[in-house]
Specification:
By secondary structure, the protein is of the alpha+beta class. It is about 20% helix and about 25% strand. The chain folds into 2 domains: about 220 residues, no CATH class; about 160 residues, no CATH class.
């Protein structure tokens, strides 16, 4: 409550707000609002509305930040949108959120959340275990899927209350003008792993990612184990922020009933004095946009529904197999033409195949001896796959590691980093000399001894074969590759 009190103490009633208040008095009373657990904030919201003048606002296209708080069209929020402006081109992929009808008169009771600053702090790696991802597949969300996540299968509730403008999505998310795309990720058996909704507001260069996982918190890609929790209506919420290139990013994660939630937004379409006193209004807007999503997830008339997405309707075939020898792997007829006749003698061997209908058909082989390793990864084309990083062998600057001293992060020009790190050569262009252009010694890298190289070969039938070697010289690698480059 002290944060709201501090916020309230900073507010003043403008002349325009005073006129709006008089207009409301002349209109008379309005119907009673629906009761929710947010009712205990009702008196505070009413006070905020009175102090701030009950500014009427509509979201339209952004033009730039306003300069005076008296110009704000919504209590506590500086509207960065020009009235009557064209919201811009919304063609292309995704669904653009449109606002509801009518005016919005009520200040949302935004819970206070402590966004702990982790700018510059290294995060522990929280990437998901490999077993969780193997065989997984995704399905794009339809607009109806996204709406059902917020409204449930019954759709948006009907309301005649003048303070409830309706809209395609809950209006108090403040997502109007964002273009949304979404996908559901399933395991190999067709059970939902998690749902991701991405939003982009091109007018204000602000973005967000909402991840929802049934039964538990979404897997964290980065971990800050020492963060304190903020309790919001009895639910612990972990939240943090970081600044990148002068723009604030906020992240919050919590359990909304049986749905784990992670929400990350970079920037916001408005400014706000949300949070600590003296905070920049742009950063306050970023925090407030994040807190509004928390409010949606934890309010009694909010939450998230994943029932309609729990099981995929069409599950692609999935197959995996392991091989004890190169001879055994060569029994896979589709891969045999791309495999060497022999591998390094006396080295340990491991092979594995994974197949998913319409998605992947991959055979991976590895030989190892101490620190020395050789891996060959073959990907058969599924559908109309288009491979990137295909290089022109007449432009050695795009792939020749001899031109760039280690550390290459400092020596390779930005435009060549992808191809120098992971070049793809057409099979008909590959030669023994090109392997010399890819070879470097471990001493150069400050690592164990031995020649290293990595590259991929794109065959005319669109099959991609990737090689990575450490401890084999260029002649030995060429002997493995030469016999396969003529394969169609």
């Amino acid at each position: 409550m002290k944060y709201y009190k501090t916020y309230m103490d900073r507010q003043r009633l403008s002349h325009q707000g005073h006129e709006k208040l008089l207009e409301l008095v002349e209109r008379g009373p309005v119907p009673r609002a629906r009761k929710t657990r947010w009712g205990r904030w009702g008196a505070l919201a009413a006070c905020c509305a009175l102090v701030l003048g009950l500014g009427v606002w509509r979201l339209a296209a952004p033009t730039g930040p306003v300069q005076n708080m008296e110009d704000a069209l919504y209590p506590g929020i500086k509207d960065w949108y020009g009235p009557g402006e064209d919201p811009g081109d919304t063609s292309g992929e995704g669904f653009t959120v449109e606002g509801g009808e009518g005016d919005k008169w009520m200040l949302p009771a935004v819970p206070y959340i402590q966004y702990q600053d982790v700018t510059g702090e290294p995060a522990a790696d929280g990437a998901p275990a490999k077993w969780l991802m193997e065989g997984s597949f995704s399905r794009d969300l339809t607009w109806e899927d996204i709406r059902a996540i917020f409204w449930g299968p019954e759709g948006a509730p009907e309301s005649s209350h003048p303070k409830d403008p309706g809209g395609e999505l809950p209006w108090m998310l403040f997502w109007e003008g964002y273009t949304l795309t979404g996908s559901a990720l399933y395991d190999s058996g067709g059970s939902l792993l998690w749902v991701t909704i991405q939003g982009e507001n091109g007018q204000t260069d602000s973005t967000f990612v909402l991840t929802l996982r049934p039964g538990e918190l979404p897997i964290a890609w980065e971990l800050y184990p020492d963060l304190e929790e903020t309790e919001v209506f009895g639910v612990p919420v972990t939240a943090w922020s970081r600044e990148e290139e002068g723009v604030l990013t906020c992240v919050s994660q919590f359990m909304a009933g049986e749905v784990g939630v992670r929400f990350e937004n970079r920037g916001a379409p408005f400014g706000s004095e949300y949070g600590e006193e003296g905070r920049d209004v742009a950063d306050g807007g970023v925090q407030m946009l994040n807190a509004l999503l928390v409010r949606q997830g934890l309010s009694t008339d909010g939450g998230f529904c994943l029932d309609h997405l729990m099981e995929a309707e069409d599950v692609p075939e999935w197959r995996e197999a392991e091989f004890a020898s190169l001879e055994e792997a060569r029994q896979e007829a589709a891969f045999a033409p791309y495999l060497p006749a022999e591998g390094p003698a006396g080295w340990e061997f491991y092979g594995r195949l994974t197949y998913q209908e319409g998605n992947e058909h991959t055979l991976s082989l590895m030989w190892s001896r101490g620190y020395d390793q050789l891996s060959v990864n073959i990907v058969l084309p599924e559908g109309e796959t288009v491979w990137g990083n295909v290089v022109d062998v007449d432009k050695p600057e795009t792939y020749d590691v001899r031109l760039y001293p280690i550390p290459r992060a400092d020596s390779v020009p930005e435009e060549y980093r992808e191809t120098v790190d992971n070049p793809v050569f057409r099979a008909q262009d590959l030669s023994r000399d090109i392997l010399d252009a890819r070879a470097y010694t471990a001493e150069d890298a400050g690592d164990t001894s031995g020649v290293r190289m990595s590259f991929s070969v794109l065959h005319p039938d669109n099959t991609l074969v990737s090689y990575s070697a450490k401890g084999l010289d260029a002649d030995a690698v060429w002997e493995l590759v030469e016999e396969t480059v003529g394969v169609n």
